[in-house]
């Protein structure tokens, strides 16, 4: 449960990304989801806004900042 909450409750999020895994659109990304291989996954689109008792709160869920680092290519053996 803590792993699931980290991506939604963190103020500042750091993502390590393999550039080889970038796809063209969300349709292709959904096709790559393998729930039999991972216990959790999350598609993040940006901070949300919510209405609580007629007051609008921006960024109610989701990180305030995101740092994205691309992993170096794996050398050919």
Structure commentary:
The protein is of the alpha+beta class and 77 residues long. The protein has one domain. 19% of the residues lie in helices and 26% in strands. It contains two helices and four strands. The strands form two sheets. The chain has a two-stranded parallel ribbon. It has a two-stranded antiparallel sheet with strand order 2-3. A hairpin with a 2-residue loop joins strand 2 and strand 3. The longest helix is centred in the first third of the chain and has 8 residues. The radius of gyration is 16 Å and the shape is elongated. The model has no long low-confidence stretch (mean pLDDT 78).
Brief write-up:
This protein has 77 residues and is of the alpha+beta class. It has 2 helices and 4 strands. The longest helix is centred in the first third of the chain and has 8 residues, at 2-9.
Average pLDDT, rounded to a whole number, is 78
Q: Spatial order of the strands in the main sheet?
A: 1-4
SSE order, one letter for each helix or strand? HEHEEE
- The proportion of residues in beta strands is 25-35%
- Quote the distance from N terminus to C terminus: 38 Å
Largest sheet: 2 strands, parallel
Which parts are unreliable, with pLDDT below 50 for 5 consecutive residues or more?
none
Based on CA inertia axes, which overall geometry fits? elongated
- Which structural class best describes the helix and strand composition? alpha+beta
Number of helices: 2
Specify Rg, calculated over alpha carbons: 16 Å
- Helicity level: 10-25%
């Amino acid at each position: 449960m803590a792993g699931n909450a980290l991506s939604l409750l963190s103020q500042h999020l750091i993502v390590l990304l393999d550039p080889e895994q970038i796809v063209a659109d969300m349709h292709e990304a959904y096709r790559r989801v393998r729930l039999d291989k991972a216990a959790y996954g999350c598609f993040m689109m940006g901070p949300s806004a919510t209405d609580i008792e007629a007051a609008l709160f921006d960024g109610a869920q989701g990180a305030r900042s995101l740092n994205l680092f691309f992993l170096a290519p794996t050398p050919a053996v």
